[in-house]
Amino acid sequence: MPLPSGTRLGNYEILAPLGAGGMGEVYRARDTRLDRQVAVKILPPAFAADAERMARFEREAKVLASLNHPNVAAIYGIEQGAIIMELVEGDDLKGPLPVATAVDYARQIAAALEAAHERGIVHRDLKPANIKVRVDGTVKVLDFGLAKAATRDGAGATDPNLSPTLTLSATNAGVIMGTAAYMSPEQARGSAVDKRADIWAFGVVLLEMLTGRRTFGGETVSDTLAAVLRAEIDLGSVPRDTPPSIRRLLRRCLERDVKRRLPDIAVARMEIDDAATDAPPQAPVHRQSRLPWVATVIALAGCAVLAFMHFRETPPTAAPVRFTIDAPPGYSVRLFDSFALSPDSRRLAFGGYSGPAGSRIFLRSLDSPALQPVPESEGANFPFWSPDGRTLGFFVGHKLKRVDLSSGAVTAVDAAIGPGTWNREGVILFGAGAAGTIGRIGASGTSESPATWIDAAHGETYHEWPQFLPDGRHFLFLVSGRDNSGIYAGSLDSRERKLVTSFQSMLLSMAVYTDPGYLFLARNNQLTVAPFDARRLEFRGDPVVIAPTVASHPSGYAQFTASADVLVYRESEPVPPAQLTWFNRTGQKTGTAGAAGSFTGFRLSPDARHVAVTVDDGKEPSSIWILDAQRSTLTRFSSGAYSLEPVWSPDGTSLVYSSVRDTPPNLYRRALSSATEERLMTSPTQNYPTDWSRDGRTILYYNTDPKTLADLWTLPASGDRKPAPFLQTPYSEFLGRFSPEPGGPHWIAYGSDESGTYQVYVTAFPTPGRKWQISVDGGMHPAWRADGRELYYQDAKNRIMAVPINTASTFEAGAPHELFVNPGSHFDVTADGRRFLVAVPTGTTISPPITVVMNWRSILKR
Fold it and tell me: How far is CA 222 from CA 124, 188, 193, 282, in A?
């Protein structure tokens, strides 16, 4: 029975029907929790009632949900017998298409299949009906893996109605599924299938895009399957201007012998790349016997015209080609692991991290999968190249190292923490030098001198991310200031600088310039590019989004680099979904609070009836929501800008939080009963609240910048709101919490890395003096019991620890003892210390790989 508009499935409200198929009816719906539209596919009742099949389906859906790729329609989850998917607005794929368009779409389909195959996911039902083309030309492949998810292990037969499109019979060896016209021969025979079945279907789809005609057909399913198995495949109808490499690709994809078929879809990407440079086949020339001199004159005239047009026209831009790069086995690429392309765009240097083994730099040639570790790069980051591409520089601690890549010889000079840029005259600039400015040093190790100067009148705190422009004398750099944050152009020849773009309405971002005149910036987690005049130091056009998400940080770092031909970036790392779960002191689960979500942090209200949570689904700026823990309703609190780190007022009626309504993050306050927020401070550093004293007078927060790392500060909640430093050291102090005893607070618990590992400490308030180390085996996230007699924290082994506290005469802390192992990464505790709220992961998230886009400028032409 069709679902009427307004029907609720968990957090999803049905809006209108979209269509129906073998796997059920599809509806447009609204995600009431995240306020976005989604597609909801209602599974058939017979399917949903089959416990074994549903269990298998849920297992497969978890794997499919990890498939994060711009050409794949995402799966968000399962809710009450329905699968929740990304809503893709666009047209079904249809032919015939212009050859260039068909090749472009084929490239995107191949990229989607490659991303899936790398994770062991085979589509099994690729066909035009499962491919959507958005208005911007982006291709989205739908229903990945649903054919496999629909089967039942060991079943002797399956219900034809439960296939995405078709099911004939099933055996342990394999299942005949998919639309008959797009089945591979092995599927049609009922044999086991692998990724090569997708390659066959890809070939069929590509052929139909070019010809506009069905490749295999018949009056019945049996006739169609017979054609798949035996009919001659006609490539003669392919348009004459189809490049030879595409014709070759079609033949290799449509090999009935699976052992002779194209073995990997990545090979198809290379063939499509070759298509950009292939000359179309020439039509046969028919000689004319009459008036040869006329033909000669006409030919010469034609040649003259063609030559004139040829030298006037702009050469065609090759189609973009995408592929991904993974870190070596045992390593991962984290947010602050940066990338650097060699000057000839042939090699990529990037950082990788391996837990106890630390980080190091790797080299990868873009035409080879081999990875090469860089000598003496252990613990290094921020690689950058010499102008001739023979030497790689990077930073280890406060030293700049240079490696001759031909000999392996390494030299080191004292410098700051990077990143760096190198001109043809041997000058190296690096960020966060003395006094937070851009530093200047000779490649041979000459002494440091400043290349920029702090403007104290505008509250500047640091300059970062320098990059030389083509003339080698001017350079771009990032300025973080109270009211003048932006990208500036400086000069080696003077102290003057010019504002290129400000960040008043966006997060800070590093800038990357590339010939023949483009500037890349990350704008609110989207990667943009705009035409830029490197001589006049100004934009020549509006920015265009070239990647919908890019991993970035409010400090200005974003994970991308570019050259004239190659773009390298990494998508925003998705937050794994988690379920807020209640535990008692012995670690027994006692209930849940609300539905699972992408929570990056949360804080219990003083009466524990509500939870302020930060939601970050990777698709819109992180925002704060209020969860009613008793009714399980989730209500948006903030919107329109990045908001995070909520802290409750002691009476539970207001929140103070950090927001990026301008840059950098600063503190705001808003009552739950009001729609108006109040800015509490203006600071050029990044500020994040951590607590609000029980007497309501003082807000505790920490700030960060490259010079001082993190320090604890206090801010009066009313009156003259003048920030005051509480703890300023060469180390990081953060996550402070006021003691809650009556007449207090008299103490502050906080985290610090002064010992070399993160530990929890307590010191006196309002004047810090002696400090007591509370944790033993590492410690983070301190929290007090409401009477101040017990302190909790999470140690390095993820154990929730409790420490008895006695403040009758002076401060005394007992020995920590374990309560239970935290199955999540965050926790908070009720005032009586009896219940703990934990964000328990409900799935795994695969960290996005490094994405490489060859010929990225052709994207702008589309």
Answer: 19, 10, 20, 40
